[in-house]
């Protein structure tokens, strides 16, 4: 798989006007934990992973363009390394394992690539500012003799790699299907464990669900999760990225509350990103059911609409309209039944402040922006949307509509003369206490005429209740959904 990725990058470079002798990428390195000799948990840098699939830290990779060849540079370790970390792997082991043409040591980069070796002068590197994080990879010149080379800056190489990473190959889709299957089995097991815990003699904690999910994923080979687990409950469901260091899923779970669990298993650096929302009691209350089914209607409408050529910005707006229609039909949240007016006032953005979805792959928020484009941040109708582009076949993305009752946004509505007149704030406060928030998130792959849903967990209210209460067995893989939307 990685050899084919390398070939694709070089083929695109050859077809472009980019000038350079070779591509150089630096793998991730181990980072000390503050001032100790303990390191942070290592994860490979995504572009290096895409091209080489190497698990070890501290490596460099080079792709020569004419002729095409792959060279892996590995750290050179002293003998005592073996007593702490095991046998020192040879260059031959790396060549055979990772299917590269040549393997040398990092301290040989200059001699292998320079005038006494291949005679390379200009090295292309991944020069791009991530539009979600604002972070840019450093120039990969932290090796002896790097001053003898010209490092070619500019986004051209990054655009090529990003577009190739965006459109998944069949092996990548197989891996993402596996991470989804593992994730779904872990979610279902966790849902049932939460139901069992809810009848216990003592309060149970939010992080019990996180621990159960990680355990179930790990025993299927997914020792890592792709992002911090979000395992909230009750009013905490309205905290979109709950589970970070300051809010570590550490509250007692209110009995009768909804749980919102957003967790994804990772394998070979590819991650799933799946969210389930369900009642701890095993049965939805009337308010919980209404809000949940409004979100589910949006999910199903989007999945039955997407196909190549569809602009995901339009799907984001569509999801808002569907949720408003459902809420107007079934709740007392609004003082008008004019959905067009609610859309004009962009009311749903106050109850759904994040985007409908994002690209998925080697990162949970994977590469997505079109070459030369920047994320639109001023249009209030697509506020928070990461995937702002037309869909293409074999893109893998998330569909994750949600409704939340967030205090500061409710206050903003109350202080807005035009918008406050259409809101029933007593009903909003009731929903805030009884529901908190609902998100439903699937992972999908765009097909030739629609999409295939990689995620397979109970979604209908009756299925969730039956599975949690033990009245129904849910076998992951038996309920995949495929939509033909041409």
Structural class: alpha+beta
Q: For the terminal residues, how far apart are their CA atoms?
A: 30 Å
The residue-averaged pLDDT reads 97
The number of domains? 2
- Main CATH class of the largest domain: Alpha Beta
Name given to the CATH homologous superfamily of the largest domain: Creatinase/methionine aminopeptidase superfamily
| Strand count | 18
What percent of residues are in strands?
15-25%
Evaluate the radius of gyration: 25 Å
Shape: globular
Helix proportion range? 25-40%
The CATH topology of the largest domain corresponds to Creatine Amidinohydrolase
Q: Indicate the CATH architecture of the largest domain.
A: Alpha-Beta Complex
Search tags:
486 residues, alpha+beta, Creatine Amidinohydrolase, Chain A, domain 1, Creatine Amidinohydrolase, 2 domains, 6-stranded mixed sheet, 16 helices, 18 strands, globular
Outline the structure in words.
This protein is an alpha+beta fold and 486 residues long. The protein folds into 2 domains: 2-166, 3-Layer(aba) Sandwich (Creatine Amidinohydrolase, Chain A, domain 1); 170-484, Creatinase/methionine aminopeptidase superfamily (Creatine Amidinohydrolase, Alpha-Beta Complex), CATH 3.90.230.10. It is 35% helix and 15% strand. It has helices at residues 2-15, 46-52, 81-85, 91-98, 109-113, 156-166, 170-197, 206-218, 286-303, 312-330, 339-344, 348-351, 407-414, 417-420, 425-434, 461-468; strands spanning 22-26, 60-65, 68-74, 102-105, 122-124, 150-152, 224-225, 230-233, 258-263, 265-267, 270-271, 274-279, 396-399, 402-404, 437-439, 442-446, 450-453, 481-484. The strands form 5 sheets. A 6-stranded mixed sheet has the order 4-3-2-1-5-6. Strand 2 (60-65) and strand 3 (68-74) form a beta hairpin. The model has no long low-confidence stretch (mean pLDDT 97).
């Amino acid at each position: 798989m990685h050899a084919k990725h390398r070939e694709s990058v070089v083929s695109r470079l050859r077809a472009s006007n980019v000038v350079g002798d070779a591509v150089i990428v630096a793998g991730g390195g181990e980072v000390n934990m503050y001032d100790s000799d303990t390191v942070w948990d290592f994860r490979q840098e995504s572009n290096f992973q895409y091209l080489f699939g190497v698990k070890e830290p501290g490596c460099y990779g080079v792709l020569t363009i004419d002729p095409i060849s792959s060279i892996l540079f590995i750290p050179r370790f002293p003998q005592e390394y073996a007593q702490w970390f095991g046998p020192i792997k040879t260059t031959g082991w790396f060549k055979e394992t990772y299917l590269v043409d040549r393997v040398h040591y990092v301290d040989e980069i200059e001699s292998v690539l320079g005038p006494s070796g291949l005679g390379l002068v200009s090295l292309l590197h991944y020069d791009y500012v991530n539009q979600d994080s604002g972070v840019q990879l450093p120039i990969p010149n932290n090796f002896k003799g790097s001053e003898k080379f010209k490092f070619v800056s500019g986004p051209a190489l990054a655009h090529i790699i990003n577009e190739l990473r965006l459109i998944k190959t069949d092996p990548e889709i197989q891996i993402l299907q596996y991470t989804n299957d593992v994730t779904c089995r872990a979610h279902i097991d966790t849902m049932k464990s939460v139901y069992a815990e809810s009848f216990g003699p003592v309060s149970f904690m939010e992080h019990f669900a996180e621990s159960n999910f990680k355990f179930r994923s790990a025993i299927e080979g997914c020792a890592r999760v792709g992002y911090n687990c979000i395992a909230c409950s009750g009013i905490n469901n309205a905290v979109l990225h709950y589970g970070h260091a300051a809010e570590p899923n550490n509250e007692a779970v209110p009995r009768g509350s909804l749980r919102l669990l957003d967790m994804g298993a990772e394998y070979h650096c590819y991650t799933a990103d799946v969210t389930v929302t369900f009642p701890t009691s095993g049965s939805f209350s009337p308010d919980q059911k209404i809000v949940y089914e409004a979100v589910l209607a949006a999910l199903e409408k989007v999945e039955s609409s997407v196909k190549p050529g569809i602009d995901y910005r339009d799907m984001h707006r569509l999801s808002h309209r569907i949720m408003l229609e459902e809420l107007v039909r079934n709740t007392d949240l609004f003082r008008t039944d004019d959905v067009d007016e609610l859309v004009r006032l962009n009311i749903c953005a106050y109850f759904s402040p994040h985007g409908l979805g994002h690209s998925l792959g080697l990162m949970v928020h994977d590469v997505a922006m079109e070459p030369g484009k920047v994320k639109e941040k001023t249009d209030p109708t697509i506020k928070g949307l990461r995937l702002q582009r037309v869909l293409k076949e074999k893109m893998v993305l998330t569909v994750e509509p949600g409704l939340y009752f967030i205090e500061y946004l409710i206050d903003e509505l109350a202080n807005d003369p035009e918008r406050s007149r259409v809101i029933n704030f007593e009903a909003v406060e009731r929903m805030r206490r009884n529901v908190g928030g609902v998100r439903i998130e699937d992972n999908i792959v765009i097909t030739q005429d629609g999409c295939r849903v990689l995620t397979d967990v109970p979604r209908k209210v009756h299925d969730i209740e039956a599975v949690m209460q033990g009245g129904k067995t849910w076998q992951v893989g038996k309920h995949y959904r495929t939509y033909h939307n041409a």
